[in-house]
UniProtKB/TrEMBL annotation:
Belongs to the thiolase-like superfamily. FabH family. Keywords: Fatty acid biosynthesis, Fatty acid metabolism, Lipid biosynthesis, Lipid metabolism, Transferase. This is beta-ketoacyl-[acyl-carrier-protein] synthase III. Its EC number is 2.3.1.180. It comes from the Eukaryota. Residues 157-236 form the Beta-ketoacyl-[acyl-carrier-protein] synthase III N-terminal domain. It comes from Oryza brachyantha.
């Protein structure tokens, strides 16, 4: 913005005094910015870019169900084989909730492990974002998760964006921090799509698994900002290619007081429906474009990327994106073979494994991208640690 009466700024504590000129008199206006230098300041024609706090990723954690289902196991249910599935998707195993296991429990485990790595107490968390399309409770699960983790001072809510959920949650967290007042945010990606899979459909049942992953995002100064650039997009016209829509069961009563179809139909959800070819075309086209836009915002070339971390949907999609961005295979993070498509959990799950294995180190630049139902997609260029 241009403010012709602005002379400059003076910092006192975590506030800035804006020095202005009006009617020939210099006066002071308190303007809280929470600790970031302005991009420019000067005389009455200065251009002032107001930017809040930065964000950094300082901890991660993950959790998966105990039951592992292999391609050979699936071949006993539907007409398929390990060779057929692996060649087309890169998947060999997936984890599935069973017995008394719940998605909430996985989310709590992942969150506690992220806090432990970050060395942050649960009661120091200000906000919990649960990115999931399959909560245990239709009304959302964030409040239950934060209560069980022990985040006594936090507020929480769910973000529903399927396989793009974690990226959208991560960007949302940085915006809360940039707005001021928020210090620590848990971003949890968790999904249990196995509950909505038609296990007689070999086109979809081979793809999905259950998991949870989490990161701790913490406020920091401008010079430490770990979100270097991002891009988020959506196109509702593509919803027909990947969805899990609400279905209805007719009520026993057809008319009440002359009103047809009352009481209302009871709602439930259908199985996941996907046009694999169209989703593949969408992903290999839009994901590299999204990463390129995020890199452009960050002012970085693709060669500056230390790691490419995509939503783990299909190895052919991951390979195609890496090829377009000219990123060598040894810089691509993939654990798809072991877990399948875990939706919003896939990126933080793969990140957690890579960090704990010593692959991803402090200061590494990661290009992360999520994409899926909605259709939604988004990318973030982040620095770890």
């Amino acid at each position: 913005m241009h403010e012709r009466n602005v002379l400059g700024f003076k910092k006192i504590g975590n506030k800035y005094i804006k020095l202005c000129k009006g009617n020939g008199v210099v006066f002071q206006v308190w303007w809280r910015v929470l600790g970031r230098e302005f991009a420019a300041a000067g005389d009455d024609s200065a251009f002032i870019r107001v930017i809040g706090m930065g964000s950094k990723l300082i901890g991660c954690g993950s959790a998966t169900p105990s039951l592992s289902v292999s391609n050979d196991d699936l071949s006993k249910i539907v007409e398929t084989s390990d060779e057929w599935i692996a060649a087309r998707t890169g998947i060999r195993n997936r984890r599935v909730l069973s017995g008394n296991e719940t998605l909430r429990e996985l989310s709590v485990q992942a969150a506690k492990r992220a806090l432990e790595m970050a060395q942050v107490n649960a009661d120091d968390v200000d906000l919990v974002l649960l990115c999931t399309s399959t909560p245990d409770d239709l009304f959302g699960g964030a409040a239950q998760v934060l209560a069980e983790v022990g985040c006594t001072n936090a507020f929480g809510f769910d973000i529903t964006a399927a396989c793009s959920g974690f990226i959208i949650g991560l960007i949302t967290a940085t915006r809360f921090i940039k707005g001021g007042g928020i210090q620590n945010i848990l971003v949890i990606g968790a999904d249990a799509l196995s509950q909505f899979v038609d296990w007689t459909d070999r086109g979809t049942c081979i793809l999905f698994g259950d998991a949870a992953g989490a990161v701790l995002v913490q406020a920091c100064g401008a010079d430490e900002d770990g979100l270097l650039g991002f891009c988020v997009q959506s196109d509702g016209h593509g919803q027909k290619h990947l969805n899990c829509v609400s279905s209805h069961v007719e009520s026993i009563l057809s008319k009440t007081n002359g009103v047809p179809n009352f009481p209302p139909k009871k709602a439930s959800f259908s199985n996941i429906e996907m046009n694999g070819k169209e989703v593949f075309r969408f992903a290999v086209r839009c994901v590299p474009q999204s990463i390129e836009k995020a890199l452009e915002e960050a002012g970085l070339p693709a060669s500056s990327i230390d790691w490419l971390l995509l939503h783990q949907a299909n190895q052919r999609i991951i390979d195609a994106a890496a090829s377009r961005l000219d990123i060598p295979s040894d810089k691509v993070i993939s654990n798809l073979a072991n877990y399948g498509n875990t939706s919003a959990a896939s990126i933080p799950l793969a990140l957690d494994e890579a960090v704990r294995a010593g692959k991803v180190k402090a200061g590494d630049v990661i290009a992360a991208s999520g994409f899926g139902a909605g259709l939604t997609w988004g990318s973030a260029i982040v620095k770890w640690g």
